[in-house]
Design goal:
The protein is α+β, with helices and mostly antiparallel strands. 22% of the residues lie in helices and 26% in strands. It has a seven-stranded mixed barrel with strand order 21-22-23-24-25-27-26. A hairpin with a 2-residue loop joins strand 33 and strand 34. The chain contains 16 helices and 46 strands.
Length: 855
């Protein structure tokens, strides 16, 4: 028995090596020969037969499988049948004479992880057959858990024990060009402009890529008829072009003479040459006799991507799914993305940017409207991975992963700019995450498509661009703690705590303030209640936090279309404060879970008092009727000249009630009458004795600022309505070179922070004076970097934001003990340590760098 076991172990060892080194095979035979005294000749021959011939059998049975063709930049070539999307793919070719079952084999894009994705289905490849897999990260069926990089990478096919069968390392790929073997299974790799997914590679490939054609005039705005000439540098090249948005192909028209343009047209052209890859497609939109005063966005795409019954995203079609307020399947409900060429021109007709991207249908139930929202996604598979342009002048953001061309949501039937107007109201006046707005005209394949609002898309990339946070390190929730990204754990823990603890206890409330940004939440709820958004708080709610300890939840303002008088539940006299604090929901948008947080926090006196008077300050300042009506009118003027043509295109748009001007007047009336009703709602809700007027005389903004409950007051003399019985938190903040002296009127205190309680009408003035004793003359904020993209790193090797101080004075200045803040209502936000003068002293004419990194 011992010998048998010994002989088996010796037989297995070399077979496991797959007989790759012949000397080891003969060494094994010699070893057996040396131990012949334990075996018969017959035993030796049997053993030799099984080892040697078994080796032969194993070589014959090794599957002859090859990674045969890949496409790492499938922008517009073939749709995956399961998801109807353009995704990366690869194919496996069986060069053997017998079928091979791939069940249990592995595909991977990581040589260190050979068993990355297992082929689970009973997938067999016939002799000389091909099986195709979608490398799209979806991890189901024939869809792998990884995608292919267009910049180049390694791909491997491994057996069920992880042994490598075949691999390929490829370089940078071009859109819609595949890379494969010719002939199938050979060692010769080539590029194919006519990819052959799941079928044989039938052409020998190409040597290189042709240069794109040259246009005599570039896209833009022109008067009257124009001709465009196309040319190439090589006489062997020909040019194919289209005028309908489709990509040029061998079947497209061949350029032979100048192209006459009589109306707005999209020209797409491509140079081809025998034996070479076609050039990249060049796209130019020519706007002929267009008179719009708005920015213009042009989208070019194959018409089938929009209108085809099977794959079109803009139609009901025959390949849809139910959802978004529709029980019947609709193509526009599918999460499909289609490739586009995107151009944007500013109102002054200068080209803002041109980029290849993807587009999906955006929005929720408004997908049913004839004019739909379009969500634009900029991905590396199409070209540059970001729009590098400052689209919105009121935000210092010049890189976008995606944007939304919004149809105005449910306001499509009414005013077309309600949501954009409300976001404009709060910008620079509330601590709130608002979404930028810019009205524009859209053309689809050269056809006028009406007014859209260019908006930031409120997702992880919005937070990345607005806060400089890594998009992968954010928790984003919507609705009742539904996870959009990351985890809901911190939020559900906070809600559980609030549910099980008495919020009247200061320590309990203080713990909550460590979990959520209370000031931002106050502004967010105040805005939604003032707007009378009838879809809120149970709908259109999204909140987020940066992952990690000590980060707080914030809320994003979005989709307020059914506010500001648009809905019967959202009129100027609607008590949305009662709706937002109802214990049992009265309608679909205020279920108990949606009102719980505000209800519980209002049990705490500190939060309640702040909520009441902060609301009053915003009614007097942010939502002052004169200011609001001025913004309504200015945004009306922006699009007014375009409304007739828009309505001619979309006759149902603005058609509710008595048309567009009717809805403008509804918003103006709302602005004028809403504050008085909200004050009455606050008095009734909290059992207050009434309201009173408080006048704040003019103060010089160069000398200092005044804040009531964290809201900055305008410098002009103003009279506002505040609530009796509730303290108003008043703070005076002197500017550099000045000092606060005292209050005058309701208080004569010299403290810069006081509280006053109104029992009748009153007056309060802040007195500032020049500070002649300042020892910091010459100290200034000299330079900042708010988005450090690897320009300079700190001592820890991190690329963080920074602030540069400069001493322009004649003497050294020690800044230890001074404060740095990004919020004038919180001037003592961060104090510069005073313990190390050698680190905080700035010599005359020198600089000091502060890292604004939260550390």
């Amino acid at each position: 028995m011992g010998f048998t076991g010994f002989s088996i172990s010796l037989w297995l060892a070399p077979c496991h090596l797959n007989w790759q080194v012949n000397t080891k095979t003969w060494a094994f035979i010699f070893l057996v020969k040396d131990t012949m005294k334990y075996f018969s000749i017959k035993s030796f021959l049997v053993l030799f037969f099984f080892c040697f011939c078994g080796h032969c059998f194993s070589q014959d049975r090794k599957p002859k499988l090859y990674i045969n063709e890949i496409m790492a930049d499938n922008a517009n070539t073939v749709l995956s049948p399961d998801f109807q999307e353009y995704e990366d793919w690869l194919e496996i070719y069986n060069a053997g004479d017998t079928a091979v079952d791939l069940s249990g084999y592995f595909l991977t894009d990581d040589p260190e992880e050979t068993q990355k994705w297992c082929i689970l289905l009973d997938t067999a490849i016939d002799p000389k057959g091909i099986v195709m897999f979608w490398a799209d990260g979806k991890d189901q069926g024939i869809h792998t858990n990884f995608s292919l990089s267009k910049d180049g990478e390694w791909i491997g096919l491994c057996s069920n024990d992880g042994a490598l069968i075949d691999s390929v390392r490829y370089g940078e790929q071009s859109a819609d060009i595949s890379f494969g073997r010719y002939p199938d299974g050979s060692d010769n790799w080539a590029f194919f402009n006519l990819p052959t997914p799941a079928t044989a590679n039938i052409n020998p490939g190409y040597k290189g890529m042709v240069d794109p054609p040259q246009f005599s005039i570039l896209g833009g705005f022109y008067r009257g008829a124009w001709s465009v000439t196309l040319k190439t540098e090589n006489p062997d090249e020909i040019i194919h072009y289209t005028r309908d948005g489709s990509l040029p192909s061998q079947m497209s028209e061949i350029y032979t003479s100048p192209i006459l343009l009589l109306s707005t047209t999209v020209l797409r052209a491509q140079s081809v040459r025998p034996g070479w890859l076609p050039s990249p497609v060049m796209t130019h939109t020519y706007f002929i006799d267009e008179t719009t005063e708005l920015p213009v966005v042009s989208i070019a795409t194959d018409p089938a991507n929009l209108w085809d019954d099977e794959i079109g995203i803009y139609v009901e079609g025959t390949n849809g799914i139910p959802g978004y307020c529709s029980t019947e399947p609709k193509n526009w409900n599918q999460p499909w993305e289609r490739p586009i060429s995107l151009e944007m021109y500013e109102a002054n007709r200068t080209l803002a940017f041109k980029i290849n991207a993807g587009v999906q249908i955006g929005g929720g139930c408004t997908r049913k409207y004839p004019q739909k929202s379009l969500a634009v996604y900029v991905r590396a598979k199409y070209g540059p991975s970001k729009i590098n342009y400052r689209i919105f002048p009121d935000k210092p953001i010049d890189r976008f992963n995606n944007i939304l061309l919004r149809n105005s949501g449910q306001d499509w039937w009414r005013a077309l700019y309600r949501d954009g107007m409300m976001h404009t109201l709060v910008k620079n006046h509330m601590d709130i995450d608002w979404v930028a707005y810019k009205p524009a005209i859209v053309f689809l394949n050269g056809e006028y498509w009406g007014i859209h609002g260019i908006r930031e898309k409120y997702n992880e990339h919005y937070l990345e661009s607005n806060y400089g946070i890594d998009a992968k390190e954010i928790d984003i929730l919507s609705g009742n703690a539904r996870v959009d990204q990351g985890s809901a754990q911190y939020y559900t823990d906070m809600i559980d705590f609030i549910n099980t603890h008495d919020m009247t206890v200061p320590a309990h409330y203080q713990w909550v303030t460590t979990q959520m940004d209370v000031n931002e939440y106050l502004d967010y709820t105040i805005a939604e209640i003032y707007f009378a958004n009838s879809d809120w708080p149970g709908g259109n709610i999204k909140y987020w936090r940066q992952q990690g300890e000590n980060n707080k939840w914030r809320w994003i303002l979005f989709d307020t279309d059914l506010g500001f008088g648009a809905h019967s539940r959202g009129q100027y006299n609607s008590n949305t404060l009662a709706n937002a604090t109802a214990i049992s929901g009265s309608y679909y948008a205020n279920p108990p879970w949606a009102t719980l947080l505000l209800r519980k926090l209002l049990e705490n006196a500190e939060f309640r008092n702040q909520f009441i008077q902060r609301f009053a300050v915003h009614l007097n300042v942010t939502f002052n009727p004169q200011r609001v009506i001025g913004i309504i009118d200015s945004l009306q003027a922006n699009i007014e000249a375009e409304i007739p043509r828009h309505i001619q295109k979309w006759q149902q748009s603005t058609s509710f009630n008595d048309g567009w001007y009717y809805h403008i007047n509804v918003m103006r009336e709302f602005a004028a009458k809403r504050p008085a009703h909200v004050i009455n709602h606050l008095i009734a809700k909290f059992g207050l004795s009434g309201s009173a007027r408080l006048t704040v005389p003019y103060h010089d903004p160069a000398m200092g600022d005044i804040f009531f409950n964290g809201v900055k007051l305008p410098a002009d003399s103003s009279t506002g309505i505040y609530l009796k019985d509730i303290p108003i938190q008043c703070k005076a903040v002197a500017k550099y070179g000045f000092r606060f002296v005292r209050w005058q009127g309701l208080s004569n205190s010299s403290d810069d922070s006081i509280e006053v309680i109104l029992t009748a009408d009153g007056r309060l003035q802040a007195i500032f004076a020049r500070d002649e004793s300042s020892v910091f003359s010459g100290l200034c904020l000299n330079e900042i970097l708010a988005l450090n993209d690897q320009s300079h790193c700190d001592e820890n090797g991190e690329y963080d934001d920074w602030i540069e101080l400069y001493n322009a004075g004649p003497e050294a200045i020690d800044i230890g003990g001074l404060y740095v803040t990004d919020d004038l209502s919180e001037p003592d936000m961060w104090q510069i340590p005073a313990s190390s003068p050698q680190m905080t002293t700035i010599p005359p004419g020198e600089f000091l760098l502060l890292w604004a990194d939260g550390d």
